[in-house]
């Protein structure tokens, strides 16, 4: 059984020993701690008592309240920024006697005041001008102050305060803007005009006697370098030379000057401020001295040399270059690589930080390829620049693994092979780009059960032979494995001392050997057969090349069309045509000589669709024929009417003369004859009889026929 004391404590205990509260606690009213004496008793009456301490934890369950009683505050206008107007205080019951951690804020919108979130001090944050709207009409400013005990989701309370703005006589000369900013280059000559203050200031008083003002009291750090020409003009000029790089110069870039602007006439102020005899206004002038870039950046060293291990990780910093600029203030220097820093495989293997000058590597360095890299870095201040050379010496490190040939070998050996035999003449040959040939060590890492195999020499050479070190013993059961898969390791640390092996970087090459032991061999020992790599290439149609057959087909059609067009152009030129200039030289009848027993006659037949503009009579047959004066073509005249007497005599005489010379030629009428005359002569030569059956013969054919008859009759 469990019991607790004192009985007045607001707690109870159950049979299970669970302690429960019997009331709702209030940290602000109830005790913060309870001590309970818990007694446990067993059925035989034995008991034990222990004290349980129960602490009541405070939670935020009370709203804060304001302790400030004042609600109305009065202040004059034109208070300085940051002036404390009121101190608002509050308290949180949850905090008891300890200082309350409260948060103050102004909920109402205003541009004149702000409240310190921690202290509750209301301060001036904006210019308070009683003469300007809206304060001209409403001089009372109401603020809703809010206090809460947590920045978010806490308990809060609000209070309204009123700030009354009292008016003062504040009509001094006004300058707009009240702060002027001008620039001047360093080393500007004395007497240089900077600014005319009268262009920015005025007095709003209506009476001319009250709107006159003067400029006095030029002050500020470095004001000895400036001066006003006169109090009335307000012209500000340089009186000294400012050199920013001069050690005697304070190194100020912006000079803040103040000039007092005041009324010449005595203002009439309220009796509330009898001690005022004048009202002044202050104008601020910020003169910025523009630095001139006079000096080139200068590297601390004309050249830099960095030594870097070839196994340095990509991206690591290998050194830093630094340049100085004597200009003040110092110009921002930008670093860059302008030449070099590349290899055959990489355009850039070095990178420099543009702002810090740190040089980093972008690609793995290789001593065996390039031992030294030289490149040019540039330091620039955007206007002037200078360069320096950087030499990176690559330090050799053992980073190349031994490469051995062959790296895999398979062999079969007889079970009774003699000890000391070079197994199948196997020899391993190793190379290492960064190690001496004597630096190799050979050892079998795994698979060498009962140590049957070894390499000779085991170190100091780049070649080694596989040797049978001990005989096989399968009969006694010492050996049970008939296939040995040996993994051979080749290291390049043979020349390294034992003391240096802890720090020396060692590389290892691997060779795999497969040895099969043959019991009672009946065939010759074989080694790994060679193999041939056959590469077959096929031209496959790609769906993406759909345009290829289309272009080929279209090109073929265009080529066939072009060939057909050329054939049509050449076809008319293939026909043979006689020359037109020799038509009249062709005789109508080729009369052979009588002394010759036989005569071969060759007749050229020409069928032309032409105009026959001439007529003549065949001297053999006496028939009329027509001919063309240009081409010499002839044909029998269809009409059998006789020729006119005169025309017939001309034709006969012409024919007789031609026949005496061995050539039959017909005279053609003159080209100048008119078509009417030709028609009259044609009509006069028409015979009255009808044409015979042989009228369709040409003059040449009729002549041949008569000539043959004449020769037969002579024979």
From TrEMBL:
Pfam family, one: Cadherin
Region (Disordered): 653-715
Domain (Cadherin): residue spans on this chain: 2-66, 67-175, 176-299, 300-408, 405-531
Biased composition (Basic and acidic residues): 664-683
Keyword Membrane: yes
Cited SUPFAM superfamilies: Cadherin-like (SSF49313)
Record's subcellular location: Membrane
Transmembrane segments: 546-571
Any one GO CC term of the record: plasma membrane
Keywords: Calcium, Cell adhesion, Membrane, Repeat, Transmembrane, Transmembrane helix
PROSITE patterns in the cross-refs: CADHERIN_1, CADHERIN_2
Gene Ontology terms for molecular function: calcium ion binding
Subcellular location, principal: membrane
A Gene Ontology biological process term: homophilic cell adhesion via plasma membrane adhesion molecules
UniProt cross-references to PANTHER family, sorted A to Z: CADHERIN DOMAIN-CONTAINING PROTEIN, DESMOGLEIN FAMILY MEMBER
Protein name stated in the entry: CDHR3 protein
